[in-house]
Structures are given as structure tokens and as C-alpha cells.
Amino acid sequence: MATEFIESVSKPAVPIIDLVVSEEDRVAIAKRHRRRRASIAIRYVFLTFLAAIILFPIYITIVNSLLTPLQIAARPPFFFPTKPTWGAYSDAWNAGHMSLYLMNSVIVTVLIVTGQIVTATCAAYAFAFLEFPLKRTLFIIFLATLMVPFEVTVITNLTTVVNLGWYNSYAGLAAPFMATGFGAFLLRQAFLGVPRDLRDAAALDGYGHWRFMVRVAVPLARPAMAALAVFSFLGAWNQYLWPLIVTKDSRYRTLQIGLRQLRATSLDQVNVTFAGVVIAALPLIILLVIFQKQLVRGLTAGAVKG
Amino acid sequence: MARVVLDHVTKRYGDVVAVNDLSLEIRDREFLVLLGPSGCGKSTALRMIAGLEDLSGGQIAIGDRVVNDVEPKDRDIAMVFQSYALYPHMTVARNIEFPLRSRKVPENERGPLVEEAARALGLSDLLDRKPAQLSGGQRQRVALARAIVRKPSVFLMDEPLSNLDAKLRVQTRAELIELQRRLDATVVYVTHDQVEAMTMGHRIAIMSDGVLQQVGPPQDVYERPANLFVARFIGAPPMNTITGAISSEGGAHYLVTAGGAIALPSEISGAARNATGLEVVLGVRPEHVRILPHESETQFALEATVAVIESLGHERHVVCRLADEQMVIVRQTVETQRPVEGTAVRLSADPVGLHLFDAATGLRLDAPDPQSVGDGE
Ligand SMILES: Nc1ncnc2c1ncn2[C@@H]1O[C@H](COP(=O)(O)OP(=O)(O)O)[C@@H](O)[C@H]1O
Ligand SMILES: [Mg+2]
Q1: What letter does residue B275 receive in the DSSP assignment?
Q2: By its UniProt entry, which PANTHER family does this protein fall under (chain A) (predicted)?
Q3: Does the beta carbon of B36 sit less than 6 angstroms from any atom of ligand 1?
Q4: DSSP codes, A84-106
Q5: Whose CA is nearest to atom 17 of ligand 1?
Q6: Which CATH architecture describes the domain B232-373?
Q7: Could you tell me if the CB of B191 is within 6 A of ligand 1?
Q8: What CATH number is given for B4-226 in this structure?
Q9: pLDDT tens-digit readout, B274-320
Q10: Separation between Cα atoms, residue B67 and residue B48, nearest integer Å
């Protein structure tokens, strides 16, 4: 009796449950597994198809940048560079000034991303952790700016930038985008997820708001920070209208404008334009590969939290 | 000297009075338990001592210094939160070290202090873990280690055990008592669990609706509850209460209930005399009630029927129904003869175990004991 009891107790729990499964259940479970595997397979086929649709133009762009203009014009088209020529890249890089434009884009983007993260962090922290008059009203105004398309404010921004003497400068390119309601909103949500007790504990431990923000709130909001960084990077990198109107010479022109010029000046050399496009997209692609996880998490974070 | 003195402290949130005119002295090196049901203002009182909430009125002193306008960090206190409030992105070691970093303790002194605190709480092997990799009990210890690492003179604890399972709670209770003794520190401990209060506190301060009800050593509060709220809140199963009116006849006092008149023993006649004609509540703890055969003759007895018997192994609770449907719980040792459910019995009580309260005010009806009423001054 006693030993039986001890044996049954000392057996691991899972096999005991397993023993209870009858033969019919086994069949049913196996069937379910098969059905699930089939549905996963279908899903993969579908997703692969979608991926192909999205990747095809990118692939063609890369292929065309490696062909000669004659080959690009040929019918039927080339889907594979039989004799890749890299000349288009050096043409775009040197003659097309893509090196300068790339540098300008990097500078402007870094300014904008840094600016957005710093201002969004401070504003979001205030909305999440501080009490001040008109807090709600101010937050609603912040949110309202999300509804205003950039085009609406272009003229006002241009006037302001010109009056500040920032026309045709990095400051003029970056300043209007260094603070956004979206960033403040995104990070505020993340900061609201930081337990109040942590703030209280830190206050007792002698940490003021600034050090609490830097040492606790920001590290805990890292996923949202990364998402904001990626979004603002994409936005800044792909800008076209603003860099076009706020600069007057190629010294401060960014990649997207440069591409446009490349197309205008090398009409007979389509492959150079394609090479320029690849150069412009490369930093984005590298960044997306590195920050893939954060981007997805940033996109789904709002969905899960409701 | 690290006593904490609350002097007519009030806290209002809009129309809600969370803490109402609270005066209380916590003595140096005392383990004082602030006890009361959820929402009675315990946490608010504690947070005001910590400096996390401003006072709406009154004054708080820690040591010999009024701290109303002193920053939390300068109050020489540490707080343990119900949620533990550990920093999730830091290791155990960094969590414990955190209070030292802000206080500019030199780097080479921090290590030994962290190790010492960790050792005191049995955390030495866990220093490199993140809070998410710890059990509830371990997290709780980290919170305690973080509190003791900078050796404050006052510890504030807000329900630190309520997130632990029952078994761990009993064990940690004992460890906390030992810890307080070892640290020689003043502790203000908030809980809604009267067992924790009874077992841990040197004194208990009971609050209800923001108002302090009674302060005193656990035994005093148990034996001489100052009012009906305290009487009912402390003790499990709770004190039996029977409502009635006092009438006196020929020097003897009776409690007239819907089910009949009960002659009151001479031990509480002093209290009864002052209450003649008043609506009162007679209180008697379950362990002071005795079940007698129905035929027996006693001075003080109530007719009742045995309704339900609950056996707990080491004791049993006999629930009896009086003639007017009021219930009386009797606590018996297992050695006592087990009554039969459904039979008529008579209930008698140990005269020293009887308490009389004014039904209107809830206040205890006898000469108030100066030791257990007010703030114990
Ligand atoms: N920040 C606050 N704002 C408004 N009301 C509050 C706040 N904090 C506490 N209260 C109210 O004060 C009362 C006491 O709360 P609390 O001290 O947390 O009670 P306890 O800790 O005893 O459960 C409750 O009625 C609660 O709703
Ligand atoms: Mg509380």
C-alpha cells in the first residue's frame, strides 16, 4: 500500500496524464496535428507569394543597375545580369554626387531622429509622471497635431525657417521635424506602463525626475524607443517635399532630391538611376534587418495593450 | 532616536478624507502595525510618513525633526512596497545597490554593503539574476535587502507579505520579526491581516475610514477592544455580539433581547449600571462561550440550538442559533465533549470575557483603560 502510494506520487505528472489518453483521443489528436500542419503549409505558400510580389520590383531594380542601358531597353527583358557591370554605381556615386547626398541625408536623419527621441522622451515623461496645470488640454493639443498633414504647415514652416536664417542649411532641413506629437504619444503610453511604485521607490532612494527618467523609465521603454527611432528614421530618410523647397543648391540636397536630379541628368543612362536608387535604399534595408524585431514589436505593442 | 510622531495628520483627496486627524506616536525601535480593512487610509498614512504624499493638515516628526517639508530622500527612511517595486532591468545586485549610488557612497564601499545586505537575506547566490528570474519570496527579500542596505533608522512596509502564498507568509513573518530585532530599527508595518498584526507588532494601531480606533499591545487590544469595530475586526472567528437593552431590577442587571432576558454577571454590572435603558451590544469571544446541557442551571445563560459544527482538527467551532435567530460561535478544544447538531443547549460565558458596547456609538462601556485608548501616551 505505502510503497504503491509513494511510487505513484514520485512519478512525473506528465506521463500520468498521457496514460489517460485513450486510443480514440490519440487518433483525434494526430488528425488535429495533421490538419494544423496543412493549414500552416497553406499559410506559408500564401505569404511566400505575397513576399514575391513585394520583392520583385526590388529585385528588378538591383538587376537593372547591373545592366547596360541597351540591355534594360531590350525585349524580352533580362531577369538576370549575365555580364554584370558595376560602372553605374561609380557613375552615380561620383558624377551623380550620391556620396554628398548620402552624407547630407545621414546628417539630417541623425539630427531628426536624435531630436525626436530627446523631445519625445521629455514630453512623454512630463505627461506620464508629472502633474501640472492644463496637462490634459496640452496633451489633447499634442494629439491634435497628429491629424494635421505636413503639407498644411509647409508654407508657415518655410517662412519661419527663412526668418530664422536657416534657409539652405542642415538646421532648416531638420528643425521642423525634431519634435512630433506622435513620438510624445508613443512614449507616453510606454511610460504609463512603468509602475508608479518604481517612481516612488526611486524618489525615496534619492533619485530626482531627471535621473529616474534616464536610469529607469527610458531603459524600461526601450522597445517603444526603438520603434520611434525606426519610424522617425524612415520618415526623415524618405522626405522629399521639404528638402526640395528649403534648399537651393546641391550642397544641402538630400538623397531623394539627388535621385530626382540623377534621373533628369542621366536620361540616357537608366542604369545609373537604378544604381542611385539602390544606394539610397541600402541604409534603410540594413537598418530594417537590424531592427526588424523592434519594429514589429513597436507596431504590435499598441495592439496588445489595447 | 528615531521615533515617529504624527500630530493631527489629515489627508484629503477632493471630498474623500483618506486620513482623518490621525495622532500617533511610534516609539524608537518599535514594531508598530497599522491595521485596518482595505481603503481605510493605511497606505496613505504610510506614504505621508515617507513624504510621498503632502499633508492636508497636521504635522509629522521623525526623530526630533518636523519633516513636513523634508524631501523623502532626506527623511532617513526606507520603504518596502507591496509590489516590491524592483527595477526589472537591473540585476539583484544593482537593485540593492541603487539607493547607495544616488547617495554618493564610494564605489569600493558599495560592494561590501550590498554583499552584507544580500547575505542577511540569503540572496548571495542570486545577485546576478534579474527580478523576473526570481520567485515571489525571493523578490520580496530583494526588496527588503534594498531597504536595509543603507541602514535607515525607520522602515516603512506596506503589506510586504500579501503577495506571498500562505506558507511562505508564515515563515517570512518570523524572519521579519528577527530582522527588526537584529537591525534595532523602528518599523511601521501596514497590513489588513489581523493575524500578522497580532503576531508581529509590539503595538497595533487600528484604523477604520481614515480614523484611528485604538492603539495598544496586541493582547490589550484583543482583551479590551475600545469599540465594536475593533472588537469585530480582531480575532478569528470574530467576537460574538448580541444586541439588546439593559434593564435593572433589584440591583441585578439584565440584557433584554428579542429572545428573552439574560441576567448579567456582577463582573460587568459596573458597566451595565451606567447603561441602564440604553441599547447595547454584548460581546463575547468564541473561546469564552461554553456549551452546557439544556437542563443545567446557571446564572448567565442563553437558550440556543446547535446549528453547525466545524472541525479544524485542533479545535472546533460550534455555530449556535439563538431564539431570535442571532448566531453565536463557540470555540471548543477537541477534548471537550462534542455537542450534537440540532439539539437544544444553553450557552454560558466566562464573566471576565464579556464586553459591553454602546449600540449607538459603538464605544466600550466601562471605565476606559488609559493604556489602550488614545495614542498610548
Ligand atoms: N491618489 C489618490 N487620489 C484619490 N483618492 C485616493 C488616492 N489615494 C488613496 N485614495 C483614497 O483614500 C482612501 C484610502 O486609501 P489607502 O490609503 O490606499 O487605503 P488602504 O491602504 O488602507 O487600503 C481610499 O478611499 C482611496 O480611494
Ligand atoms: Mg494600501
Answers
A1: T
A2: ABC TRANSPORTER PERMEASE PROTEIN MG189-RELATED-RELATED (PTHR43744), SN-GLYCEROL-3-PHOSPHATE TRANSPORT SYSTEM PERMEASE PROTEIN UGPE (PTHR43744:SF8)
A3: yes
A4: ---HHHHIIIIIT-HHHHHHHHH
A5: B41
A6: Beta Barrel (2.40)
A7: no
A8: 3.40.50.300
A9: 788 889 999 999 999 999 888 877 766 788 899 999 999 999 999 99
A10: 10
